[in-house]
Design brief:
89 residues, mainly alpha, Non-ribosomal Peptide Synthetase Peptidyl Carrier Protein, Chain A, 4 helices, 0% strand
């Protein structure tokens, strides 16, 4: 994993832990576990994450990109950010 991807992952994890899980225990958040299935994120939470990504990484997230395969886990979110930063969806 590149340094940039590691930085993205750390920032995404920190945001989810602090703002959606209200925790500072990183062991509570596994990177590839479904945030939807665990009840960590819902449609409003997805919008919060999208706003965070747009502000933090300068992305423009389209409504058509707000799909579970992009936002259902930390790993999916990081992969989505990396694709967007490379210029592809």
């Amino acid at each position: 994993m590149s340094t940039q991807a590691t930085n993205v992952k750390a920032r995404v994890r920190d945001y989810i832990l602090e703002n959606l899980m209200f925790s500072d225990d990183p062991s509570e958040l596994v990177d590839d576990v479904s945030l939807l299935d665990r009840g960590i994120i819902d449609s409003t939470g997805v919008l919060e994450v999208v706003l965070f990504l747009e502000e933090s990484f300068g992305l423009q997230v389209k409504a058509s990109e707000m799909l579970p395969q992009n936002f259902d886990s930390v790993a999916n979110i990081v992969a989505f950010v990396e694709r967007q930063q490379r210029g592809g969806a």
